[in-house]
Design brief:
Rossmann fold; alpha/beta; five-stranded parallel sheet; single chain
Length: 193
């Protein structure tokens, strides 16, 4: 069965040579080949100011590009978020994007008395590249930033289940292993996972 899939490429550098961009393309190629409908957001191509106050978060106007991003998220049944691990977390540009995108009244109720995410009915996959071994990040650092994104951002907005793919030692794994990961990510796209 075909799915509506939104791919969010969260690398802050739009240079095409980044391995993360190749992973994004591999997922897209697999999904399209399987007949899924796919849309993409490349965060590095967007221009938006960072939020600097609670009142901006609650009521700042969205520009047309961010309204399109919200429309894409509303359209999607499955969301794929890719980013490189920087200083143990997602890059600041991606965090700023989520703060602009996932606003009160869109992603969760404005009323703070209850907690019911408004984006239910969507699943997600997070794909992260990192310099350290993925096992080291999972066990020693306890993958704290991924758990926060999964529970405190996506889960809070009603998105779930959320699955994760961690690609460690990305600079040192070699061409063959990079190819293996590209093929694995393409298979995930084909399956709509």
């Amino acid at each position: 069965m075909s799915k509506r899939i939104l791919i969010i490429d969260g690398h802050p550098d739009a240079v095409a040579e980044h391995y993360l961009h190749a992973l994004s393309t591999a997922y897209r190629d697999g999904a399209v080949a399987a007949g899924h409908k796919v849309r993409s957001i490349i965060v590095s191509e967007l221009r938006f100011p960072l939020l600097r106050s609670q009142s901006e978060f609650e009521s700042a106007e969205l520009d047309e590009s961010m309204r399109r991003c919200q429309a894409d998220l509303t359209w999607a049944e499955h969301v794929v978020i890719l980013f490189p691990l920087w200083l143990g977390s997602m890059p600041a540009l991606l965090k700023g994007f989520f703060e602009r995108l996932l606003r009160p009244g869109f992603a969760f109720p404005r009323d703070s008395r209850g907690w019911t995410g408004l984006l239910t009915g969507r699943s997600a996959r997070i794909i992260v590249t990192m310099g350290m071994p993925a096992l080291w990040y999972r066990w020693f650092f306890r993958a704290h930033s991924l758990k926060s994104l999964k529970r405190n951002v996506l889960g809070f907005c009603g998105i779930g289940p959320v699955r994760m793919s961690l690609i460690g030692n990305v600079e040192g794994i070699g061409t063959a292993r990079r190819g293996d990961w590209l093929a694995r990510i393409q298979r995930l796209g084909h399956a709509g996972h």
